[in-house]
Structure formats: C-alpha cells, structure tokens
Amino acid sequence: MTQPAETAPGNLPLVAVVTPVYNGGAHVAKTLACVQNQTYANVVHVVLDNASTDETPAAIARYAGGPVPILTRRNERLLPQIDNWNAAMAMVPAEAKYVKLLMADDLMRRDCIEQMVSVAETDDEIDFVHAIDVFNDRTKPHGLDPSISVYEGREYGRRWMIGEVTWLSGSHMFFRAHPDILHETFSKEIFPLMDMEFIFRRLLDRKMAFVFEPLIFTRFDERSVTARLGGWTSYLVPGFRIFLKYGRKFVNDEEFARIDLDYRLKIARHHLFAKATGRPIADEIKTGVAKEGRRIPLTDYMLAVVGWPMHKLRSTLVRRRAERSDPTEFVPERAFIGDRVTVEP
C-alpha cells in the first residue's frame, strides 16, 4: 500500500514535476520513486514518454497508484528532444504555481520540493530556486556565500558569467509557472543548452534563490543525449551563443571582452583536439561558430596552443581554490531514493 505524504495539502501551491523521458528504463523507476517520496503534499508528476521502446512504460504504470498523481502521455512517434521537452511543459496543469524539471535519470531529496517552495514563497519576485547539486555522488562546488540566499537575477547571472558561480544545473530548474512560458518554453536555437538559455532569459528582471542543502542529484550517463552529442564539448558553442545573446545585459564591457576571448580560445582548443582525434563534433564546432557570424582565426589557434600550459595551471588553481572554500562531500545515491513508497504491481 502507498503511504501518505508528511504534510497536509491545505492551501499549499501546486508544484508540477516535469519529466520528459525516452528509453529511461535503466534509471526512470528511481526517478519516479523519488517524486513519490516527496514530503511536500501538493505535487503532480508530469511524465511524457517519447515513444520509448524499453521498459519505461511499465515503470510509469507501476507508480501510477502512488501518493503523487502522475499525468502521463505517450508520443505515437519519436520527437526531437527539445520538442519533447516543450510538449511536456505544455502538459503542466493550469493551476500549478511552480514547475520542477527533473530528468529521467536524475533524483531529488525527499524534502526538495518542500524546501524550494518554502524559499520561493518568501518573495513574489523569486523566479528560480536552485540548490547544491550532487553530481555522481559528489557535491558540486557552487561558489556562493552561504549567508546570502536570494540574489537579484542580473547579479546572479553576472556572477555565473564571470566564473564566481561555478555550477548551475539547468536540468534541475525550479521556477514559477507563468502561463506565458509553458508553451514553447525552450528555444530550439540553443540546443542542447535550452534549459540554461531559459534561465538567463528569466533572470533579466527577476530574482534567484539558493538552498544550501544537497537537494538534487545529477547523473552523467554515457548513454545520455549529452554523451552521444560529444560530452561537455557539445555545450561549448551553445554556451558561447548564450553569452553573445545575453552577455552585455549582465556584464560590463571589460568583463565581456575577457569572457569573449576565453570562449574563443576554449573553442579553438576543443576544435583542434577534436580534429586531431577525428571526432565528428569538430565540424559541428566550426559550423556553430559560423552561425554566429564568427570564425576561428589563426591567431586564436596560436594563442590557444601557446597559452595551453598557463590555462591548465590557472584552471587547476581555480579548482583548488573552489574546493578549499567550498569542499565537495560524498552523498550516496540511496540518500535520494528512500524506501517509503511501495506501489502494488
């Protein structure tokens, strides 16, 4: 039998957890379970199955009788990932006040929704809430001052662009469900960083809050879309595109010039490495840069090669400084799954 959530619904605002999934059989049962385990009472789980061919439909059906209602639909044909994400967002009930994006291989702690709603309700201008992310069992340094939990959106965006905020997972976004952003939520122009582009779009005139607890768990799966696209290299050009689109709205001219150069040299390094190792993503990097009206000049390649040792040294020093001020901690996956929910087959 299912066990009830630990808080009474009362007048609690409705939170829609949104999970687009395609062939998520390896992990989706755990993801479904962590939603069923939430201590916050007024939750609905929106699950859009993108024509999966594995055990995903059976896993969804298994949890259909849990304490958290599941609103589910199955696409008749396979959609591109971003179309599936947008279709899932369009399924959010009109009465939902907040949305929590949750990938089919990620998790959240039992009190995640409860804590995020609690901080969001303190200020109507708080549009996003984030938390410490556990990435494959280790907490990711965030670079924030634990004494400050709410930021003006532009200031938070600036800190991320100049590198003071060291980690921000768009795939774990928790945001206010404004009706105007639940249809075509994600831009096809900035795949696969459409979630990050969405965050920067909203940060321009809203606030961002942070919970200094390890509430979310991100898994990097070699079978994921990110891995198949080329790993973290696949984020380079989309990240540059976000910076070019929003950078001047968050940083000053001097900061913009420095970040622009950093991006260009990073792109040149990755392009050289991809070409040398015969990786197909090399052509995608060059094409992506060209779409922005840019090219990778010879001087960028030269600076990238000559400056490689200094770049490695600087990266190591930055990482060590971040780890000293914000040390990582081990948090096992089982801390996010729990065992409170038993669903009858």
TrEMBL record:
Pfam families, alphabetized: Glycos_transf_2 (PF00535)
Classification via InterPro entries: Glyco_trans_2-like, Nucleotide-diphossugar_trans
Occurrences of domain Glycosyltransferase 2-like (ranges): 17-147
Name by which UniProt lists this protein: Glycosyltransferase family 2 protein
